[in-house]
Amino acid sequence: xxxxxxxxxxxxxxxxxxxxxxxxxxxxxxxxxxxxxxxxxxxxxxxxxxxxxxxxxxxxxxxxxxxxxxxxxxxxxxxxxxxxxxxxxxxxxxxxxxxxxxxxxxxxxxxxxxxxxxxxxxxxxxxxxxxxxxxxxxxxxxxxxxxxxxxxxxxxxxxxxxxxxxxxxxxxxxxxxxxxxxxxxxxxxxxxxxxxxxxxxxxxxxxxxxxxxxxxxxxxxxxxxxxxxxxxxxxxxxxxxxxxxxxxxxxxxxxxxxxxxxxxxxxxxxxxxxxxxxxxxxxxxxxxxxxxxxxxxxxxxxxxxxxxxxxxxxxxxxxxxxxxxxxxxxxxxxxxxxxxxxxxxxxxxxxxxxxxxxxxxxxxxxxxxxxxxxxxxxxxxxxxxxxxxxxxxxxxxxxxx
Length: 401
Known about the structure:
Helix content: 25-40%
Distance between the termini: 33 Å
Low-confidence stretches: 1-19
Oligomer: single chain
Mean pLDDT: 92
Radius of gyration: 23 Å
CATH architecture of the largest domain: 3-Layer(aba) Sandwich
CATH class of the largest domain: Alpha Beta
CATH superfamily of the largest domain: Periplasmic binding protein-like II
Strand content: 15-25%
Strand order of the largest sheet: 11-8-12-7-13
CATH topology of the largest domain: D-Maltodextrin-Binding Protein, domain 2
Largest sheet: 5 strands, mixed
Shape: globular
Number of domains: 2
């Protein structure tokens, strides 16, 4: 891994080698469409910082973080040298040989919050440079309708929404959000050591909360006139239209929500919901984003320096200032400015009830199918237990051919 050794002042305290390369260092960086301008500023400051060591030709291409895994695994040789990606892609990218281990792992780890470092680590190896700690979800709400006390209970929120002919919205038929109703019930979902097959007992017939009890609670929720299932991308639109007065989403919607509600904009952890006569705190998948370096880069050393630079404290603060993204850098995350941002504080609070997303591919389609069954109000002749058994069978199905 010596090809990725760091030199130069990378913002984490390494010393500069002072040597200037005769060759032009060519690098390609991927950035999301909305983040291109911010990334360009980071690249410019990097080039200025290292101008005495090398000449650079750094290009920025638009690439959605959600598509990085598929694009990289399809054609890694034409992939970016440096790219951002969400933590749920790390298993596939590392297994595919795409990711360069972080050379100055101890320095990077010590500069960032522990959960973000764990999300970027696989088999005791740090594969990513932590960048943000806000890629999860929480509850937005309109303070004109809900008090601080109201938003503690989903039952209460649905009641208020129904009384006002409005909606509490979420993407119910997505496995990412559906997990909210299972994660803190005492039932289990985990990934086996093979990294692809799931373990799950969400159909359990014993214990304080059974699988059937959860399904019945979900049926009650989706049939409530105050509830709406909608794609996550539509929630902000319906908030602006005045139809949705609370919604489960993430920091990507904060600007839309603030624009729509102004001083009435509120954000908090997810509420409790009622199952088996108990109030259960809704769970979440916690999410982190990081920068990765392509193991096939022709300029690994400089790619590592650039990834390190783009995730240092200063640039995480820039990302927060320009894009409202919550930093993983410990110093940046503890700033007074960030403490004022309701959405980021909601993410931090909700993370106590969250779990890193580590699931095999069988999970996603199984969740969509199950959620659509609940939404339809019909089991097609099956008992609730049979529906749960089928659901779990599909979650735990092997994807190995």
